[in-house]
Design brief:
Elements (H helix, E strand, L loop, with lengths): L1 E2 L4 H13 L8 E2 L3 H9 L11 E4 L2 E4 H10 L16 H19 L19
Parallel strand pairs: 1-2
Antiparallel strand pairs: 3-4
């Protein structure tokens, strides 16, 4: 998962996933890291101003609300039930995602630097 490492909402989402995933299957990298930039380049995504979390699963990548659905499916119940949003039209889901992504700093704030995982989680955050 590539996420905005200075976004308070995004960091909270990463901590939430770590606490509620069914199994430790995800790796996380901030978009600001060398690896995050390499992933975005490989996917032909913008390196700056990228307002979407990127989830790579099974050789495919998912953006915006599709990424949220992929993440939700890997969580323990009842959180996995959030994946049911996949039955809403993608245009509606992505509209809501875009509004939140565009205003995430104003609503939730931002950090001055990316979070540094503790030793127990460091292997989940390749650089």
């Amino acid at each position: 998962m590539v996420f905005d490492g200075v976004c308070v909402l995004c960091n909270g989402a990463v901590r939430f996933i770590l606490a509620h995933e069914k199994a430790p299957i995800f790796s996380f990298t901030p978009v600001q890291s060398d690896l995050g930039q390499q992933v975005l380049t490989a996917l032909s995504r913008p390196l700056h101003g990228n307002d979407s979390v990127v989830v790579i699963d099974g050789g495919r990548y998912y953006l915006k609300s599709d990424a949220i659905v992929r993440l939700a499916r890997a969580l323990k119940a009842p959180w996995s039930w959030c994946a049911l949003i996949r039955f809403c039209p993608r245009a509606w889901r992505d509209w809501a995602y875009d509004r939140l992504a565009r205003n995430r700093y104003a609503i939730f704030g931002r950090y001055d630097s990316c979070m540094v995982p503790d030793a127990a989680l460091r292997q989940r955050f390749p650089q």
